[in-house]
Write a structure and sequence with these properties.
The chain is built from twelve helices and 14 strands. The protein has about 375 residues and is α/β, with parallel strands linked by helices. The strands form two sheets. Strands 1, 4, 5, 8, 9, 10, 11, 12, 13 and 14 form a ten-stranded mixed β-sheet that branches. It is globular and about 55 Å long.
Length: about 375
């Protein structure tokens, strides 16, 4: 078992709340952005996807803290969030200026890739309402103290959007700890978000400030290196199960540097092609040491975007349910694998499917 102390559900309005930006994802399907004549609309965002997964796949009470410009695009995002089942009462609505000079909603054009052609993402998110969230905009005492939240999730994508967004993360995680809410953070390093504001050095400065308030730290090998400065020696992009020992050493270093970490979890992926990846995960707690999920070599993938977020939501579900860490990491790896078999950032998996795959079930037809 882990050493997490989780507030009883009966004392809290929400099982989980995420803090982050929600964008429109514009998807050309099997085609390319540059030649698209039609685009399918989804919603998505690294932090949001986790809360949505907890609601839609696992049936938990979840909400999103974000901000949207109050125009037709913002209301479309709201409609998609409502379809995802999340509580929208914590959204901050910002008056729109007519053309987006001062505030707007984020767009994310994403093509899935196939075979030797990798996935491509083009974000259009400057001056968004969420990036302008600042300390004082959210009544955290009301949320965590009066309403009650068992688990807060946020991450490095939102923290990278602006100085005020990073400050908002620090304010949120500090308040959550004050009221006994468990806090998870996905490092989710994106070079494109940091390159204009200081690159890896700035990412490490910001994430190291946040890390001291985190209970459950999530990421992959690049995230821990780029965002916190922990090197994984002797491991290249062609990961294998033999790399577990290398990652265990990295986890040990992170745990020593941040004794507040009660769980550390990382996905492990080898990219053979855009549509065939090896997929697995490991996790650590002081009580269990390192535990590994089932390694799935040559997993067939339809849309890899959001796989890591679905891993996080499966892991969090297991921990909220009181399962041992070894079981929770299996849930996470299975949920991530299933989420990558369907289009869009967000999960279409059911809890029954996750539990079946995590328990060793296969892809035979269910009748």
């Amino acid at each position: 078992m882990t050493e997490l102390s989780i507030r009883p559900a009966s004392e809290c309005r929400f099982d989980a709340v995420s803090l982050g930006e929600v964008m429109l994802r514009l998807d050309p399907g099997q085609g390319r952005i540059r030649t698209a004549r039609s685009l399918r609309v989804w919603e998505g965002g690294g932090e949001y996807n986790v809360a949505r997964g907890l609601r839609r796949a696992f049936g938990l009470r979840a909400a999103i803290v974000t901000a949207l410009a109050d125009n037709e695009i913002g209301r479309l995002v709201e409609d998609l969030i409502l379809t995802g089942g999340l509580d929208t009462s914590l959204i901050r609505w910002v008056a729109y200026d007519g053309i987006g000079r001062s505030v707007r909603n984020g767009l994310n054009f994403t093509e899935r890739g196939f075979g030797v052609r990798g996935a491509v993402g083009v974000s259009d998110r400057g001056h968004t309402a969420a990036s302008q969230l600042k300390p004082g905009d959210v009544d955290w005492d009301h949320l965590f103290g009066q309403l009650g939240v068992r688990w807060l999730h946020t991450g490095g994508i939102f923290a990278a959007l602006s100085e005020s967004a990073a400050a908002t993360v620090i304010e949120a995680v500090t308040a959550a700890k004050k009221y006994g809410t468990v806090v998870s953070y996905d490092l989710n390093y994106r070079p494109s978000l940091w390159k204009a504001i200081g690159g890896q050095a700035k990412a490490q400065e910001v994430n190291r400030q946040i890390a001291g308030n985190i209970d459950v730290m999530i990421g992959n090998e690049e995230d821990f290196t780029a965002s916190l400065g922990f090197e994984v020696e002797g491991v290249d992009e062609n990961l294998s199960t033999l790399a577990v020992d290398k990652f265990a050493a990295m986890i040990a270093a992170a745990a020593a540097a941040y004794p507040n970490f009660q769980v550390i979890a990382t996905t492990m992926r080898t990219v053979h092609t855009a549509s065939v990846n090896d997929w697995g995960a490991i996790a650590w707690s002081p009580a269990t040491g390192v535990v590994a999920a089932t390694h799935r070599p040559r997993l067939e993938i339809l849309d890899r975007v959001g796989g890591g977020d679905s891993f996080a939501s499966g892991l969090i579900y297991g921990l909220l349910a009181g399962e041992p860490l070894a079981t929770a990491v299996q849930y996470g790896a299975a949920h991530g694998a299933l989420a990558m078999t369907t289009p869009g950032d967000t999960t279409m998996a059911t809890k029954a499917e996750v539990l079946k795959l995590a328990g060793g079930g296969g892809a035979r037809v269910d009748r």
